Amino acid sequence: MPWISLDNKIDTGGYATVEKLKIHPDHYHSTRHNTFALKTLRSDIDNIRAAFQQELNAFRKIRRGPHLVELVAAVEITERRFMFIFPWAEGGTLEDLMTQEHTNHRGPSRLPSRQFSSWVLDQCRGLVEALGTIHFTHTDSIYQSERDLGKDYGLHLDIKPSNILYFSQETEASPFGTLKLADCGLMEFHSLASRSRKSMTGCSAGSQTYRPPEYDFNHTKSKKVDVWAMGCAYSEFLTWAILPHGSVDEYRLARMQDVSIISNNEEDRKIYECNFFQHHRECEVPIDPLSSDVRGRRINSNTCRVDSSKIRTVEIPMLKPSVSQWIEKLISKVEHETRPGIIVEFLVFIKEEMMQPERVQRADCRRVLKFFEEHMDKADLRSKESSS
Prior knowledge:
Layout: E1 3-11, E2 16-23, E3 36-41, H1 48-61, E4 73-78, E5 81-87, H2 94-97, H3 114-135, E6 152-155, E7 164-167, E8 178-181, E9 188-191, H4 192-195, H5 213-216, H6 224-242, H7 247-257, E10 261-263, E11 277-282, E12 293-294, E13 297-298, E14 304-307, E15 312-319, H8 321-337, H9 342-354, H10 365-387
Parallel strand pairs: 10-11
Antiparallel strand pairs: 1-2, 2-3, 3-5, 4-5, 6-9, 7-8, 11-15, 12-13, 14-15
Helix pairs in contact: 3-6, 3-10, 6-8, 6-9, 7-8, 8-9, 9-10
Protein name: Serine threonine kinase
Pfam families: Pkinase
Domain Protein kinase: 4-350
């Protein structure tokens, strides 16, 4: 192969390895990239050809965009050796970025400078626009109606900070670099009709930490799975942007302190994990077959019920108290040191609409983009008017 260097092997888990390489200029012409990432699928994974084809098909279906990683090439060498080539992200991933200090981006206070704040919000907006190109693959616009059941719609299914690449190179449009959504290995495409009939049997693939409540309740896959995960990633990204270095680890530790199941049954095991929600389990609730209300509360679509002739176990998902308290901490920090503005409004939106445990009430991509239109675009207009 026409590769002139090959190093920096990275193990990405049970699916693939990634290596840094340079391609001989006679075989690739680009003024934008001079180093690349070679992703090699592990030869021992089941149905390796199908896995390769699934990821390749995903890139063929989705439209290119500034916040979606670009596929340079796909390579089949032998029956069990498959590779993808992408531009190399010098900054690593969002996970890597959040381990770094960035005091040089901040103003006199511990809060980000206005330019850095704008960059953070621009990246959040760009990432959800990239997600929209997956969710609305063959539509002319991500704002188009979903009435056409024959069209394909995609699900990313593995959004997390380590699957968001950080291209740290400065550009005129993005002075602190660019975040790009990556890793389409678990991406699926469905028609609305077929997808609505397909159930999730658990979060066997993808991240347990960023999974939504409905994964635990064996519910239908939907695009709102990705919105939940993106909201969780946003909450960590904004933690890094607003609070001192090391705060993301503190946030994760705080989530680990909250038990995953709140129950009045002493026999239930106490489980602690780093996810963002917990189950509130109510046992021995009298059954009224004529009503879907339990103790005056209507069971929502994320509720798991186990009925017998005498008792019902009801599980209601809620945000972990540590998550709600942490976001309130971010809001208080911003309000205390700056004028309340779009960052506060965005934090509230993340908590109330993106990280909404009730799937039906959770925002979709259109709603998130509408938030940015209503707040960022108007803020830009006010800024231009005040400077003129």
